[in-house]
Specification:
It is a single chain. By secondary structure, this protein is an alpha/beta fold. 37% of the residues lie in helices and 16% in strands. The chain has twelve helices and 16 strands. The protein has helices at 18-28, 36-49, 60-70, 88-95, 114-123, 156-166, 217-227, 250-281, 309-312, 316-325, 352-360, 372-383; strands at 53-57, 78-82, 99-103, 125-128, 131-134, 141-145, 169-173, 181-182, 185-186, 193-197, 210-214, 287-289, 296-297, 304-307, 331-332, 361-363. The strands form four sheets. A seven-stranded mixed beta sheet has the order 1-11-10-7-6-2-3, with helices on both faces. The protein is globular and about 65 Å long. It binds pyridoxal-5'-phosphate (PLP).
Length: 384
């Protein structure tokens, strides 16, 4: 019997200029949060995403926190957010003292359901003196965070139209959709502000890091100001506000520049892996491969399937265990945040689609460096 190496879920791919750029930081002594790579990484990201400005941050959660602040979201206001998401955007809403309004997923692409958004805004809210309020909580509703999960876009056009009608700021959490497009436009560039994370398992990594992108100069300036302790004077230590130390270091940005050079290839590779999985898994009873809408180009960040216990014979956790025995790492989706003990204080309605996706979803190995041979191994185990 062959002793198989284990196959991880999603690990970084380091094969470009990372070493050379890091060495440059060390050789020039620019290791901290000021340095040429920070500026270059911001420029490269803005250029790639197609926004006028980009502001680097310490991580993706910090980017979301600052985005909410510069969008003007205040204490005791409410922000619509996908319930099926990694927890970070919902935590960020609480950091500014605001409250989440959880929106269910749609069953086709598993993203924030724009019809549920419409239902809440049209039937669950009222206007008073030009401001929008939630009928039930009587809190003001001021923003929406569509989270593009697993690399696929939210159907944004209706969301953007409603945001316009109802006066909501739109903050895209585009972390998982870096490299994905909606009707030809890059995710992160469609709302008022876009946020990204460059944690270890994202589309690209800086070890840890994040970015805010926007076309609005005032928002970008405010973001830069707040991430750098709100320092008002280049020499004197005079601060106009309570700011944050949320900067990215030059070392991290150096890795980011090298990763950004390879992003297009990474996206291509992820899409190729997804196509292989899709073809191989399509015919298996009880397995639903993830789909791509005609209006979308997904980054396929985490390749995910739904497992129907009745038809497949095992549920998602059962398949996870079978794969684990064969040293193949897989992962369930996130507990929908409306069910999270961390957000038990927030109001919860009926959100059945997200709950079902949570029960049935399983993400499969999809590192950029995944070999054909390893991909075949995963497919074979699922088929068996
Ligand atoms: C990873 C992730 C974040 C958080 O980013 P950090 O850099 O870990 O703080 C935020 N939103 C989404 C959708 C993520 O996947």
């Amino acid at each position: 019997m062959t002793a198989f190496e284990s196959i991880p879920l999603c690990v970084p791919e380091i094969r470009g200029n990372e070493w050379a750029f890091l060495k440059e930081c060390l050789d020039t002594n620019f290791v901290s949060s000021v340095g040429p790579f920070v500026d270059r990484f911001e420029q490269m990201t803005a250029e790639y995403v197609g926004t006028r400005y980009a502001v680097a941050t310490a991580n993706g959660t910090a980017a979301l926190h600052i985005a909410l602040l510069v969008a003007g979201v205040k204490e005791d206001e409410e922000v619509l957010v996908s319930t099926l998401t990694f927890i970070a955007p919902v935590n960020a809403i609480r950091y500014v003292g605001a409250w989440p309004v959880f929106i269910d997923a749609e069953p086709d692409y598993w993203q924030m359901d724009s019809e549920k958004v419409r239902d809440f805004l049209e039937n669950g809210c009222y206007w008073r003196e030009g401001a929008l309020y939630n009928k039930r909580s009587r809190r003001r509703v001021t923003a929406i965070i569509p989270v593009h999960i697993l690399g696929h876009p939210v159907d944004l056009q209706p969301v953007l139209e409603m945001a316009n009608t109802f006066g909501l700021k739109v903050i895209e959490d585009a972390t998982e959709g870096l490299g994905a497009t909606y009707k030809g436009k890059n995710l992160g560039s469609l709302g008022d502000i876009g946020c990204f994370s460059f944690n270890g398992n994202k589309m690209i990594t800086t070890g840890g890091g994040g970015m805010i992108v926007t076309n609005h100069e005032a928002l970008a300036c405010k973001a830069k100001y707040l991430t750098t302790q709100a320092k008002d004077h280049p020499i004197e230590y005079i601060h106009g506000m309570v700011g944050y130390n949320y900067r990215l270091t030059n070392l991290q940005a150096a890795v980011g520049c090298a990763q950004m050079e390879q992003l297009a290839v990474y996206v291509e590779t992820k899409r190729r892996i997804a196509a292989r999985y899709g073809k191989a898994l399509q015919g298996i009873a009880g397995i639903t491969p993830m789909k791509e809408a005609i209006w979308a180009s997904s980054s396929f960040w985490l390749y995910t399937v739904l497992v129907d216990e009745k038809k497949f014979g095992l549920d998602a956790r059962g398949l996870l265990n079978k794969l684990d025995i064969k040293k193949i790492q897989s992962r369930p989706l996130w507990q929908p945040i409306h069910q999270s003990p961390a957000h038990a204080e927030s109001y919860v309605g009926q959100l059945p689609i997200a709950e079902q996706l949570y029960h049935q979803g399983l993400s499969l190995p999809c590192s950029v460096g995944l070999s054909e041979c390893d991909l075949d191994r995963v497919i074979t185990v699922i088929k068996e």
